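Re: Re: ligand-bound prediction request (bumping)

Still looking for help on this. To restate: I need the protein modeled with zinc ion bound, output as structure tokens. Inputs repeated here so nobody has to scroll up.
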Amino acid sequence: MAAVTTSVASMDRSFLEHNLSDTMSCLRQCSNTQELKQIHARMLKTGLMQDSSAVSKFLSFCLFKNPPCFLPYAQMVFDSLHHPDTFLWNLMIRGFSSSNEPERSILLYRQMLCRSAPLNVYTFPFLLKACSNESAFGETKQIHAQIIKFGYAGDVYATNSMINAYAVTGNVQFAHRLFDRSPLRDIVSWNSMIKGYAKVGKMGIALKFFQNMPEKNVISWTTLISGYVQAGMNKEALDLFRGMQNADVEPDHVSLANVISACAQLGALEQGKWIHAYVSKRSIRLDSVLGCVLIDMYAKCGEMEEALSVFRKMKKDSVQAWTAVISGFACNGNGRAALSQFMEMQNMGIEPNEITFTAVLTACSYNGLVGEGKLLFRSMERSYNLKPTIEHYGCMVDLLGRAGRIDEAKELIENMPLKPNAVIWGALLKACQIHKNVELGERIGEILMRMDPHHGGRYVHTANLYAMARKWDRAVETRRRMKDQGALKVPGRSTISVDGTVHVFFAGDRSHPEIEGIHSKWKAIRAKLGEKGYMAEAEDMRIDLLEEEREVEMAMEQHSERLAIAYGMMKSKAGSTLRIVKNLRVCKDCHTVTKLISKIYQRDIVMRDRIRFHHFSDGKCSCGDYW
Ligand code: ZN
Ligand code: ZN
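Reply:
Sorry for the wait, this slipped through. Here it is.
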């Protein structure tokens, strides 16, 4: 080694520099490991590997090349160095911190300590970033201790990195304590606090931080918007996006994707279209993420034509985009189109993944395509080496059960390699309800109520099954059991978007400022339905009229979707389409009522419930009453 060093020392500096610039231009064009090896060999031969600035340039190239295909090579070269300096150690830690193996950064740091390599203030930020990406809370705490020990506790960078690491690893209280003590907070530390509280769903506190921060950047807005979307507070996300517009902050891809998905959840087609237009107008690149959320948004608003037109403009190489289209057809009840899209995708050489199969099996289930569904289910393992998950079994039970093949569904559950969960049993119970198999339904109801004693829906479905079989005593008893257990029903909630504002209604809700008008509108609609011979479903009503639940059942006439329909009829032009999103499955009675309204008032009504779409038009529904 000594001999080489001497020869380097005596080498002409300009020769080295010439070589370096040559090597760098080779590196910039290097695209595979073979070429990289050649460059490396040349650097060894010309002595460039003895020059620390050349080594750092070479390593930087390997570490930060996108896609990250040279990371192992960087590690190998680094391991061959005798005394890498602090700069190189930090470089390696940084390189691995955002890779898919962030734990390597932590290992490098450990090596660094073992070899007594000196560290400096730049060592910690990326090390902590690695901890965040690895969700390594324990390591974060240890590194915190070392920061104090090595005397960097007063450093703003290190402190802000600590705040971020604690917030992101789900320990927002630790982050908060540090934040309170930190003498120099910057925008990054404020953003970290918003992120930390949003991550644990404490949106109220996240909002307080947002409101109190001295200045905000696009990340502050985006973080809060994403938090709202994740917490299911989609209306708040949209309102905040409007605030962002008013504040003249240019949204980035992440915030756009988040608000589009908020629109999808709310069924807010107008706002969704507006954001789509905004994306086009600003020539914002339609990458796979934005494309998929747009497809999903249009599909969830029942606009498959628009969804397809977005899809046509995208590169067809992402399985996510194909899956979004297939699942759009599925929830809009067009099983055949979903299947043909699935075939086309395979013809293009794109391999379906597990989510694609859930989508295509769901499509089969909603359309009673039993043979196709069974073939696809079998092909998962045979042709694609994908093990069916509990979701796929759920789809199959649903498919067989709805189609009346209850014994087959039961057999599938008995022979499945996974432990059936409540979703699987729930699907079978639903099938028993549709096909009036009370005996089996009773047994499954028992299983479900034992599995989930605090889930109100389990009791309600079982009680409905009894009511259907006219076993009133059992029905009443089941409802009483629900009450004794303190099990709660998820409150029904419907949203409708009118003139760019989203209105939310709960069952029996009186909080809307125009509630009096809405009630009298509903009374008028109800009277008109009565004239046309409508009577509420006796079975549903009977169970709903148990004395002790009168106040709940008063709400029957005020199921949230009815309030939304009444409001929509009040506020929109005659003949225009109403778009409603409901958080639960639409009940049989509301389904009948909505069909009638679509005929009497000549209104198309698009209603998305928890499961799927109903396009009501001229007295019929697109689901063909098969839901
Ligand atoms: Zn209803
Ligand atoms: Zn329907």
